[in-house]
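FORM 7B: Structural annotation worksheet

SECTION A. Query
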Amino acid sequence: MCEAMLFASAEPLSCAELEARMPHGCDAGRALSGLARRYEGRGVHLVRVGEAWAMRTAPDLGYLMQKETVETRKLSRAAIETLAIVAYHQPVTRAEIEEIRGVSVSRGTLDQLLDLDWIRFGRRRSTPGRPVTFVVTPVFLDHFGLESARDLPGLKELRAAGLLDSRPPPGDAEGADEDAGEDGQEGLFGD
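SECTION B. Predicted structure
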């Protein structure tokens, strides 16, 4: 039953969603463990996406699923920067995003990311004004093939992939940004 629901679903399903559709007393967690073992080494895998599960093509066979499509909507630089800040610094308020970017965030940028369902409103901060925070969604994790936001690449991986300048930001000693804090993300947007 779990296998059939996962194959038919366009979205990842949680254990609770699976069990709600199954007869009383069925253990979706046990069924998922068995399915994950059954699909090891096959053309499809059972993968965890946040708190949910989905069937995905094995990574080594992904090239078979290529489909040429026209990209209809690209994110602006502001939207990409805002999304990266939310992903790496979540939960983050609008004021914190603006402080990191150094410019104000337009409502349209946040609306676009909310419409794509890549970010959502988080909890309100217990500070004056009770500002709302933003966090990434399971749709974001699924789109980028991540189990959680902790799986986002760090500075070393981004530099190795050529996505960041390999020299330290101006005014920093060589390699000082490697010790840039607990999450290692300081300086990502300083260029």
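SECTION C. Observations
The helical segments are 2-8, 15-21, 28-38, 77-89, 94-101, 107-115, 138-143, 155-160. The beta strands are 13-14, 44-49, 52-57, 92-93, 119-124, 132-136.

SECTION D. Sign-off
Analyst initials: ____
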